[in-house]
Amino acid sequence: MEILHMIFIAPFLDMAALPDLFFQGLWDGFVGGTLYALLALGFVLIFKASGVFNFSQPILMVLAALALVSFYEMGINPWISVALVLVMMYVLAFGVERLILRNLVNQDGNILFMSTIGLTFVIIGSAQWIFGGVPSSMIHAELGFPVGSSEMPMFGGAVYFEHIDISAAVLASILIGILAIFFSKTKIGRGLRAVADDHQAALSVGISLNQIWVIVWFVAGIVALVGGIFWGARSDVSFALQIIGLKALPVLIIGGFTSVPGAICGGLIIGLGEKIFEIYWGPMMGGSVEGWFAYVIALVFLLFKPQGLFGEKIIERV
Amino acid sequence: MFYKETGQFKSKYKEELAAFPLFEDKIGIGILGVLTFLVIPLFGLPGLNYEFAMGAIMIPCMIFIIMTLGLNILLGFAGQISLGTGAFSGVGAYAFYKFITIFPDINIIIALVLSGLVSAVVGVIFGLPSLRIKGFYLMVATLAAQFFLTWAFIRVAWLYNYNASGAIEGPNKEMFGIIMIGPQSSGMTRYYFVLVTLIVLTWLASNVIRGRIGRSWMMIRDMDIAAELIGIRPLVAKLSAFAFSSFYIGIAGALMVFFWLGAAEAESFDINHSFLYLFMVIIGGLGSITGSYMGAIFVWVVPVLIKEIGKSAFGFDAFVMENFSTILLGAMIIIILILEPHGLARLWQITKQKLRLWPFPY
Q: By the 8 A CB rule, do B342 and B286 touch?
């Protein structure tokens, strides 16, 4: 009985008793959610355009963040560092296309997926070698993002808004919007969708597969950089970010693998859900439930709605 | 020339079905047996320190072969992707630890089999989603297992008997009057124990795979709908694959902690280990027992040797060599996938084919 009370009643009483704390949790979850959505978008982009399930997206984020910090520590102007990272991402996209994807055209999706795991290890090794594995702090203040926090009285208490979180939510939303438009309205976006639909048909109407792949991986790199800056600001810049990046996978499950709005909704569900669960249900389970809660939500979704919220119903059921 | 079936006549159906039908194969296995049972435990590997050869190469290799066999049953034979291997091996290890601490008099072999069974049950529970989903979706479901279980290894203090370090440690334990595990056990005893376990498990796997259950796994892998139509029950086939695979992985996990590392924390079962085992399967070759052997040995030995060579011959520090071997591992995966998606097992088949015809081209 007591356990049932602890699970089903006490947390809600807590929420009602301290609405400001609850709202704080919601806000933190919302910011996390937009950033998850952004990362998930990186996956969706590549999956839609090349059918590759890009497992290296999280490590791309780590790489971008690490490179940015390292360039800055070498004494380069922060904005020039950003430009350098973008150049690096382009070179990487080009290299991936040349060395890996081009050689694996027409292969099974599993093979392509495993090759991105291989790529993940190559990036981990080289990033650690070149930039070192020591955690460092993000340079968001130097980039001109606001720091500090403001306090807003609410429900008899106060809710703190970290300024970097506000800018993260805003910038992530803007980027998501731009990507959505880029994807549905521009010529390149149409090309991407054509490639996703059918490689051969796209080739026959004059769309260059190789070029499209480079663009897609580069866009995924940009997404990784933005994600890296804000996740880096929220925690440290280290390889632990990869675990955060992996949480984009349950987001995808919830939203559906091919849907942009799905990625956004999924991100918000995961972000809000895990924060609230961590605050109100986490302590009785021993804490740090954030590590797996997202995956459990995804599992539940898989059992009841395997194609995700907005996904196409192409999933093969068994 | 060296390897031909000409002149080797079979007069009984049973001989046709033998695991090693060719005389040359029997010689090869015999040589391997002599090497592993007599030469290596007595003299170690040539050019390497005896302790190093045992502790860093032979014992881990054999344990990883068991692990790879387990994952290969699931991935290569039944076609279900899993990234929860590391966590399932942890289940085996923690179960073994609980068994030998709760029942101090339990026989090690019984404890090992029981911990394998515990791991199998956990594997079946987390394999349940596979009945409805497959491919990448299933992979995310197994990631849930991975993160949930490693969380449990840290947070559920009962699993490590509430000790302060949070690690599980092998106490000294005897079997038939010989100290098998723990700080006082000798490398050679542990080596023999792991070797015999490996042989028994390989024998079991090869027979199960050739039998009815194994065939139903392969049917599910190749085309599940067709398999269902001709009377394979996906429920039984998939869950039995998860159970079998987790049984092997659990045993390998228990062996890894108590016969090799001596002590372990939750980090020994994290997602990077899952990737490592996945690499062993891919590089070795999906759906091949020989491939499991080759993949595990290759993926484990090459980086170890490179690190040693780099340190002793070129004087690179450990950090550089660590990163270099990570890069090498990733690059190896990509290269193998591009050049030979069927892994080392296929290369070995090609070699055998060439040996058969040599010195003639065809």
A: yes
Least CA distance to B80: which residue of chain A? A110
What is the average per-residue pLDDT within B255-259? 89
From A248, which residue of chain B is nearest by alpha-carbon distance? Answer: B140
The CB density around residue B294, as the number of other CB atoms within 10 Å, is: 22
Q: What sign results for the dihedral spanned by CA atoms B227, B232, B235, B237? A: negative
Task: Render pLDDT for A135-148 as a digit per residue (tens, 0 to 9).
Answer: 777 777 777 677 76
Please check the confidence at residue A156 and state whether its pLDDT lies above 70.
no
Q: How far is B194 from chain A (nearest CA, A)?
A: 30
Question: For position B120, what pLDDT does the model report?
Answer: 94
Distance from CA of B323 to the nearest CA of A (A): 4
Residues of B in contact with A286 (CB under 8 A): 155-156
Determine, for residues B143 and A246 on separate chains, whether the beta-carbon distance falls below 8 Å. yes
B1 confidence band (pLDDT: 50, 70, 90): low
Domain spans, chain B: 50-357
Query: How confident is the model over B296-326, as pLDDT tens digits?
Result: 999 888 888 887 777 777 777 777 778 888 8
Specify the fold of B50-357. ABC transporter involved in vitamin B12 uptake, BtuC (1.10.3470)
Distance of CA A133 to the CA centre of its chain: 21
Can you give the three-state secondary structure of chain A, one letter per residue? CHHHHHHHHHHHHHHHHCHHHHHHHHHHHHHHHHHHHHHHHHHHHHHHHHCCCCCCHHHHHHHHHHHHHHHHHCCCCHHHHHHHHHHHHHHHHHHHHHHHHHHHCCCCHHHHHHHHHHHHHHHHHHHHHHHCCCCECCCCCCCCCCCCEEEEEECCEEEEEEHHHHHHHHHHHHHHHHHHHHHHHCHHHHHHHHHHHCHHHHHHCCCCHHHHHHHHHHHHHHHHHHHHHHHHHHCCECCCHHHHHHCHHHHHHHHCCCCHHHHHHHHHHHHHHHHHHHHHCHHHHCCCCHHHHHHHHHHHHHHHCCCCCCCCCCCCCC
**What's the confidence (pLDDT) of residue B214?**
92
Instruction: Pick from A100, A108, A117 the residue to mutate for testing the B interface (most B CBs within 10 Å).
Output: A117
Q: Which of A296, A303, A317 sits opposite B148 (nearest CB)?
A: A296
pLDDT band at A318 (very low <50, low <70, confident <90, very high): very low
**Average pLDDT value for residue range B69-80:** 90
Q: CA–CA separation, A272 vs A29, rounded Å?
A: 4
Q: Phi then psi for A134, rounded to 5 degrees?
A: -80, 130
Give yes or no for residue B196 having a pLDDT over 60: yes
CA distance, residue B164 to nearest chain A CA (Å): 16
